[in-house]
Amino acid sequence: MPRNVKKWSIIFLIASLIGIGILAWPSIQWMHKNVTAISKRHDSNMSPVIFIPGSSATQNRFDGLIDKLNDRRGKRHSLLKVTVHTNDRISYSGSIRPRDNEPFIVVGFENNKDGYSNIKKQAKWFSIAFNALAKKYQFNNFKAIGHSNGGLVYTMYLENYFNRDDISIKKLMTIGSPYNFSETSLSHKTQMLSDFIKQRKKFLKRCQSIRLLVLRILIMMGLYQHGAQKRVNIFIRAKPNIILKLQLQEMMLNILTYHKINKSLI
């Protein structure tokens, strides 16, 4: 091989290796960053309690409850309040202290109005907030509490948005959530209840992907002041038996009524 041809072959080889290195470097950085994030999430000790308030309520809805919980535990946990705006922007107030493994997080919405169309929007906005929180704090499990329409938002979120195998839900509590709105008969299902029932297999599938065998669901059923025992029985049937269909021996399902709990805590 002539000397100049050999020289150019070496130059071409070196240039090719440099080019491959330049092209591969972003992928290497991404892999390193991704592996680091996965490792950090896997080793995380944080298990936040994430609240969603009901319609017309703000991120301040649970202040009294959280104060009581902190007083009873004897150890005050951090409180972070999150508001998702209609343009998908997220604003924060409060903070999570370093090494606080069980902070309280309340996610509210700028548009906190009632109605099925708004519940759909709020489920989407909660998904945006949840993904941002998971990315920032790297927790691998959480507890979920939804009051009134907040429980509907959680149900909509779990059926349509939550699809992760790196984060598990340890407990789900919905408090007085009107799954059939004001209808008192299952023969008159609202569109929302009908949609929840249609999506229950998807909900169950996604719950199975987050270790359903260790999922504990506590559903607190409530008597409204204008309601009756018949109404409670209807909601009891509508919630665990029709929507969730979770029949696992290792799942603990407790149904309480408002008269059995302290209303001031809700």
Short description:
It is built from seven helices and eight strands. The protein is of the alpha/beta class and 266 residues long.
Secondary structure layout plus pairing:
Layout: H1 3-42, E1 49-52, H2 63-73, E2 79-84, E3 90-95, E4 104-109, H3 116-137, E5 141-147, H4 149-160, E6 168-175, H5 191-198, H6 200-208, E7 216-220, H7 229-244, E8 253-256
Helix pairs in contact: 3-4, 4-6
List keywords for this structure.
alpha/beta; 266 residues; elongated; 7 helices
Shape: elongated
| Largest β sheet strand count, sense and barrel closure | 8 strands, mixed
SSE order: HEHEEEHEHEHHEHE
Mean pLDDT: 74
Q: Which structural class do the helices and strands define?
A: alpha/beta
**Helix proportion of residues, in percent?**
40-55%
In angstroms, what is the radius of gyration?
24 Å
Q: How would you write the strand order of the largest sheet?
A: 3-2-4-1-5-6-7-8
DSSP helix count?
Answer: 7
Number of strands: 8
